[in-house]
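Support case: user asked for a sample of complex input and structure output to validate their parser. Sending the pair below.
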Amino acid sequence: MTQTAEKPRRESESVSRQIFHLTRKELRETLRDRRTIITLLAMPLLLYPLLGLGFRYMAVLNARAETPQVLLAFESEDEALWTQDLLKTTDALRENSEVDDTTDPSLEFELFITEDGMSLSESLMEGYAELGIRVSMTEPITRSGPRGRSVELIQVAGSAISQRAADEMERRLAAINVITLSDIVKDTYPEFNLPVTRTFDTVEPVGKTSAILGLLPLVLLLMTVTGGVYPAIDLTAGERERNTLETLMALPVPHIRLLFAKYFAVITVTMLTGLMNLLAMSVTVYSLQLEGTLFGENGLTGLVLLKLFLVLVAFAVFFSAALLALTSSARSFKEAQAYLIPLLLLAIAPGFVILLPDWELTRMTAIVPIINVLMLARDLFQGTASPLLALAAVGTTLLYSSLFLFIAARIFGADAMLIGSRGQWRDLIDRPAEFARTPTAAAAGCLLAFLFPVYFVSSGLLQRMADASIAQRLTASALLTIALFVGIPLLFAIWRRLRVLTAFRIATPGLSVWPGVVLLGLTTWPCIFELVVLVESTGLQKLTEQNMDRIQALLDAWRQVPIWVVVVALGIVPGVCEEFFFRGFLFSGLRSRTNGLLTILGTAIAFGLFHVVLAGGAAPERLIPSTLMGLLLGWVSLRTGSMVTTAIMHGIHNSTLLIMAHKRDELANWTVTAAEQSHLPTTWIIASAVGIVVGTSWIWLTTRQPKT
Amino acid sequence: MNLLQSDTRDRNKPPLTDSATITSVRDIRLSVCYSESPFLRECHMIHVQKLTKRYSPTKLAVDELSFSVTSGEVYGLLGPNGAGKTTTLRMLLGLLPPTSGDARIEEHSIMNAPVEIKRRIGLVSASAGLYQWLTPREVLEYFGWGYGLKPDVIRRRTEELTDVMQIGDYLDQRCATLSTGQTQRVNLARALIHDPPVVLLDEPTRGLDVLGAQVIFDYAARLRQDGKAIIVCTHKLEEAERLCDRFGLLHRGRLQQEGTIEELRAATGETSLVEMFLKMIGPVNPEERIA
């Protein structure tokens, strides 16, 4: 009778049918849950009408703001009547085109007399009026305008409308003066014309759209994500919470297939939410007749909706994978929610980038996750999307999704998920009873997380030493580097009873590797320098004039001290100390948990991120070159089994670069390099590339394990 | 013999039958299987050899555990909390990779053929939940697909298990509305949907009343008759005595004693499993009660 589970019939058919049935169960489970339905249906149905009403209210306020009513306060009826006469006179002049187009017809004035006992200033301060006008009444008004009157305008400080009213009154008074003088002169000289006349016109900037149009993609996409959050948590962390994970993992189905089923279910719910949002938005826009206001003369067409739907698909594919990657590592709903809040904040933050006028979908921004899809959605709304860039944005989004899915598959159903984590926070802080050779990956990660903000704040504090001499600043910088990258990790290691030599990977490799290490240290910098230039030329990050000036000032300042001081403070000390932490402590921590490749990658990314932080700001252009340098240092460290080699290599690299910067002008005089040129001579770059190839080959050859 | 001082590595070998009383044809079959002849090794449906699981340098969950279970045999893996029972079951299922050692289900190793292993095992765990928004029928259908069964097989097995487990009254009711006993019956049906040759029962009667537990006993007896190899982990030692043919007493990840109840009585001088346990673990630590 025993039949055992059947082996697959036709593999591909069997797999697809199995995934279909697995997905169907996930969807059944999700869509029967009323919490999903509330997110799916109720939220969009409530949100968009409310947003629409809000927008209409804003539009009405805007319309009012375009013709604001300004209250002018007077102390006496005579003054008010005089001003009313002035306003009528200048209105007539404008209608007859007798004055320049300088008055603001959109302002509507209302005049009122202050109550007895209240001064003009008091009525303005109390907010009863926008502008106070005091007129010294001596003579009646004539066609030629009031003569010899002194008019005092009292405005509310910091009030835009008060300023606008004062400007308008000033223009009208000036117009009266000009026309009066002009009339007088023309009586004598009929041919007289004013030497200068002014006219004003306004134009709409290209691509200008409603500000809310920029927010729509963000609202739409965020609402779409909301739909995927609950199913993602429920289908992953929920499995563990309701004790179904073990039986699920006991199925003879590869994890990736189980995860695919969950992924398709999350995408489906996310897409359904996206569609509901799109539908609710379209109905709201249509019923409130906002399509013209929001989308211009073409309105919200079916084609725009279709394109938006496609963007939503890409977004759902990406976010569903990201959600699953995060929730797969959670052991409960609460934990999953804690993970997702930062993700949602991360999604919102770049969303506002698309509101910045200078941010366009370019070759570079098309590969930046989230931002690329948001920009594409915005461009689709505006009808300015480029097909090639759209393809790049969608393509990279799908690529990132695959990466997230791969991560999720590795995590979902893993040991820690099944049996629960045995570690607790205290384990990272408490002093262990026994000595250990290397730190745990968690301990190394914690120290990294601690050092990053400390480094950020310390760099800022260093920047405040502007009044100190360059020697003092260099000394402070060196001491800070030693304290951060050597002092703190060393204290941590001693407290955690770690063997310093093994925890920091302090070992002396054989003499044979050193030529390669020194060669790499000497020859890497031109290639790294060119990378910075390359990154700048791609437009990812431009070195501003201000930055260039700062660098030049720094170079000039360094000349005030002997070159060796600069080399020690900024070359050798950072080189050695950074290696002590990155290729020492962090490397051994990560290596205890994962393979060499991931260790190199992890330390290199951390190294790159640290180099983005500069005193008093950030230098994103350093991320890629520093990370690549980190990869090379990591590889050398792995091959040689020590941080000593990379400390020497890093120190030589920094020192060479500093000496070259210090001697820049002399080199320019020898026509080796021109100070104005951004690129290094080609021969230098070739020599650097050759040096890197020879150096790495040397290290590889001298560290090969003999075949047994 | 003092069990705590015994050499468990020697004891991990299947006991020979010369000290035991052969009472039935099945016992004869078992005794033949536990002979050292390599030609008869195929009788072992489950063969565990020096299975070890170390979670951390200081946490050894299972220490070189070896035992075998034949077709038609119910093997009781008993031990206090943290003895390593559940870890052993998870390793057998391929849910946890062992640190060292191996286990074979039929001819398949847990190290090399995790999918084949999972096809051959049905897991019933007292802590296992059900999908709250699905009905028992949908749960059985889902797991049927998961085990790669054809639709007609899923239908037939669902009907069979519905009759045996008496779950027909609530087969189309949402699982969230089921009682503990009903949930456990559905769980048992779920574990057997693919009619596996090996069944792992982890606390199968926890939360069940007498009638509910009886259903489990009856079905275990039927599974035994069908030639399944069954491993039971339970804290109800009197139930274990009724249910199991042989026992492995596990303490701190090591197999301290193994054999039929008669063999254990002869070896320990104690009459009941409870007494054997108390003797095995020594003075009772408040945090280490018998499970």
